[in-house]
């Protein structure tokens, strides 16, 4: 294994991390039945707030906390307008995504291109980082990467192995049934929207205090919020498939930039920028169209059911609807 | 509140505007700018003389065309976020015909360019529609992806194939031949009459079509409840595609105005964010066609006026987005406050 290749794998893990964190937040929110469409703007605004708080206080931790609070605040505003004021979730989320993006550009002006942006340091994990290959790829990162791994496991465990997790899935699928079993549907929806939003905020900080350190008026992570939302659909609202989707996308990006640097292949670098979006469309076509069903039919009958559960992507049944029971 | 309805109604309409102004002023104060000075500069930038007013109208035309197009898609229940990309596609198609399409009669040239723009916008909108109806990709995600893709294509064309052989700027294509410029009303009032008429006709046409035709009724039925519309025999898929194509035509014409008049060349992000302004206008108008031309005029004045703000006071153009975003958000929130609690079960 040569070094450039390991470096590439290492950067795939680093670049996938904010997407994993943001998508995981959205999984929690959407599993509870709320669509938070503000991800793109939320990530930008909390990234900017993270840079601002970190540079004023001088510590990265303050920046991360501020970014998380910003994300939670936006999400709570969305939840309040959608649940209490009964407005369309898609409309509110869309307005918030535009508003937060513009707010970030407008208020972030004093922090544009600061000379020495604060960066969360790399923390190689003592023994594990010495392992050949794997150590280099997985255990020489900043805390965001380790956090994202723990987060995925925690969300999976919470959703599928605990009673509150069962309630969470229930309020997204059959809120009336959950309500009749004593769940406080709208209160829980507020809670999971806020937690999801806080995670989106952390994802913003993972960009601006991590892999894309600093803030500029044309931020490089613009657009990734939409990609995170698409990953959630591609993943069928399942934590492990989110990881697969995010890493697949980061790998494609790494390959694209590898092609750009290689002297033998001549493809316009501008056209390569299209790649994540084409991939997003492609994956959405695969999971939502009839493609999966046609593939499954080709398999032997006894594998068909398990293949279907593995591949298909059905949203929580009550996603984006209101519940007025409590 | 215990105010009688006759006072409460206008109060609730005015309140969001006041709140939006106050919050925007607060943002300006945070950055150390004087809100009153900004407001005055915007006003002068928009209405000081006829040349400034022409600037407002030149922004009003594409903004109105695009917004009224979005009313069609919203009526059909579609979130056409891809409208920004449809403008870009129109701009690219119009630029292509201005640069490369050989047209014998020079007086037909600019009309052909606008028609190409309309076709470009329609084609790009059809992609969003087919992704939705044939491949099950939600129009929001299809639109976002196609927006990004068309912007990349524009940058590719500008920096690569459409550069003149002797070399040029990577920032924009060579200027179009003057036959492809939209003729203006007078040297002091540089507004293309042809486009102005098109925009007015489009507004009237959409208002009438949605109100009084079978097509409008089918769109509204499909928008309210696609399932029941289908059961009643409304061709839901066809009307969704048709709504998108019509919106694409209007957005494409708007995009052509940006290249055939405003810049006389193709540049990256030539749409100037009009697609996103238009989406917020449609929300402000509560998806009704009639208020659109008035709202777009106010916004066009703010946008045209604020080009001076960014030059004189060094304040970023994103201020407009902040103001408009706050306004729409507060309007949504007050609309929620207006509903009595007992209506809860009906939504």
Characterization of this structure:
The complex is a heterodimer of chains A (326) and B (347). In chain A, 71% of the residues lie in helices and 2% in strands. The longest helix of chain A has 29 residues, at 3-31. Chain A has helices at residues 3-31, 39-57, 60-84, 89-107, 134-138, 143-161, 163-173, 175-180, 185-211, 224-234, 239-261, 269-272, 275-288, 291-298, 301-311, and strands at 122-124, 140-142. Chain A is built from 15 helices and two strands. With 347 residues, chain B is mainly α. Mean pLDDT of chain B is 87; it is low at 342-347. Chain B has helices at residues 5-30, 35-47, 50-75, 83-100, 106-133, 139-159, 193-212, 214-224, 226-231, 236-263, 274-284, 292-312, 318-338. At the A-B interface, helix 4, helix 10 and helix 13 of A face helix 6, helix 11 and helix 13 of B.
Describe the global form of chain B. globular
Strand order of the largest sheet of chain A: 1-2
The helix content of chain B is over 70%
**Can you identify the CATH class of chain A?**
Mainly Alpha
CATH fold naming of chain B: ABC transporter involved in vitamin B12 uptake, BtuC
Number of domains of chain B: 1
User: How many strand units of chain B?
Assistant: 0
Helicity range of chain A: over 70%
Distance between the termini of chain A: 59 Å
Give the termini distance of chain B in whole angstroms.
23 Å
Features:
heterodimer, A: 326 residues, mainly alpha, ABC transporter involved in vitamin B12 uptake, BtuC, two-stranded antiparallel sheet, 15 helices, 71% helix, 2% strand, B: 347 residues, 72% helix, disordered C terminus
How would the blueprint of this fold be written?
The complex is a heterodimer of chains A (326) and B (347).
Chain A: H1 3-31, H2 39-57, H3 60-84, H4 89-107, E1 122-124, H5 134-138, E2 140-142, H6 143-161, H7 163-173, H8 175-180, H9 185-211, H10 224-234, H11 239-261, H12 269-272, H13 275-288, H14 291-298, H15 301-311
Antiparallel strand pairs in A: 1-2
Helix pairs in contact in A: 1-6, 1-9, 1-10, 1-11, 2-3, 2-4, 2-9, 2-10, 3-4, 3-9, 6-7, 10-11, 10-13, 11-13, 14-15
Chain B: H1 5-30, H2 35-47, H3 50-75, H4 83-100, H5 106-133, H6 139-159, H7 193-212, H8 214-224, H9 226-231, H10 236-263, H11 274-284, H12 292-312, H13 318-338
């Amino acid at each position: 294994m040569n070094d450039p290749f390991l470096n590439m794998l290492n950067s795939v893990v680093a670049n996938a991390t904010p997407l994993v964190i943001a998508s995981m937040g959205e999984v929690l929110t959407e599993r509870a039945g709320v669509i938070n469409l503000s991800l793109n703007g939320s990530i930008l605004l909390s990234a900017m707030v993270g840079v601002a708080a970190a540079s004023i206080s001088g510590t990265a931790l303050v920046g991360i906390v501020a970014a998380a609070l910003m994300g939670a605040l936006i999400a709570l505003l969305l939840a309040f307008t959608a649940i209490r004021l009964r407005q369309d979730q898609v409309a509110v989320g869309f307005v918030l995504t535009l508003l937060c993006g513009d707010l970030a550009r407008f208020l972030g002006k004093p922090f544009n291109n600061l000379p020495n942006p604060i960066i969360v340091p790399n923390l190689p994990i003592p023994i594990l980082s010495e392992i050949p290959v794997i150590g280099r790829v997985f255990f020489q990162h900043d805390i965001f990467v380790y956090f994202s791994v723990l987060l995925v496991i925690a969300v999976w465990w919470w959703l599928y192995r605990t009673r509150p997790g069962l309630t969470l899935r229930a309020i997204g699928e059959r809120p009336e049934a959950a309500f009749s079993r004593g769940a406080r549907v709208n209160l829980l929806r507020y809670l999971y929207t806020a937690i999801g939003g806080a995670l989106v905020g952390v994802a913003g900080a993972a960009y601006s205090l991590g892999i894309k350190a600093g803030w500029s008026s044309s931020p490089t992570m613009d657009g990734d919020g939409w990609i995170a939302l698409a990953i959630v659909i591609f993943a069928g609202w399942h934590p492990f498939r989110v990881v697969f989707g995010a890493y697949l996308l980061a790998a494609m990006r790494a390959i694209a930039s590898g092609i750009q640097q290689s002297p033998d292949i001549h493809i316009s670098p501008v056209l390569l920028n299209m790649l994540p979006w084409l991939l997003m469309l492609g994956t959405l076509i695969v999971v939502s169209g009839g493609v999966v069903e046609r593939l499954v039919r080709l398999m032997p009958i006894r594998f068909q059911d398990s293949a279907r559960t593995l591949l298909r992507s059905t949203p929580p049944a009550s996603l984006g609807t209101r519940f007025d029971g409590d | 509140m215990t105010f009688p309805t006759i006072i409460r109604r206008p109060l609730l309409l005015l309140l969001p505007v006041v709140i939006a102004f106050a919050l925007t002023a607060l943002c300006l104060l945070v950055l150390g700018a004087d809100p009153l000075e900004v407001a005055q500069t915007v006003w002068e930038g928009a209405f000081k003389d006829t040349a400034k007013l022409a600037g407002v109208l030149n922004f009003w035309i594409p903004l109105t065309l695009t917004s009224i197009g979005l009313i069609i898609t919203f009526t059909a229940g579609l979130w056409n976020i891809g409208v920004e990309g449809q403008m870009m596609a129109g701009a690219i198609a119009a630029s292509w015909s201005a640069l490369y399409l050989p047209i014998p009669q020079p007086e037909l040239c600019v009309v052909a360019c606008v028609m190409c723009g309309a076709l470009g916008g329609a084609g790009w909108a059809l992609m969003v529609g087919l992704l939705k109806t044939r491949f099950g990709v939600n129009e929001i995600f299809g639109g976002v992806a196609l927006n990004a893709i068309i912007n990349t294509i524009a940058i590719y064309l500008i920096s690569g194939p459409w550069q003149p052989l002797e070399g040029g700027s990577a920032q924009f294509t060579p200027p179009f031949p003057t036959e492809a410029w939209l003729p203006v009303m007078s040297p002091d009032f540089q507004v293309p009459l042809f486009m102005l008429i098109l925009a007015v006709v489009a507004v009237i046409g959409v208002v009438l079509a949605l109100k009084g035709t079978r097509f409008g009724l089918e769109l509204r039925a499909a928008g309210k409840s696609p399932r029941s519309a289908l059961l009643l025999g409304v061709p839901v898929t066809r009307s969704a595609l048709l709504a998108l194509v019509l919106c694409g035509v209007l957005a494409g014409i708007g995009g052509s105005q940006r290249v055939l008049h405003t810049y006389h060349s193709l540049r990256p992000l030539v749409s100037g964010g009009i697609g996103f302004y238009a989406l917020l206008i449609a929300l402000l108008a509560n998806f009704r066609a009639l208020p659109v031309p008035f709202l777009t005029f106010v916004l066009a004045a703010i946008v045209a006026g604020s080009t001076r703000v960014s030059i004189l006071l060094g304040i970023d153009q994103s201020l407009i987005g902040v103001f408009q975003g706050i306004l729409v958000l507060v309007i949504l929130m007050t609309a929620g406050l207006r509903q009595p609690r007992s209506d809860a079960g009906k939504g």
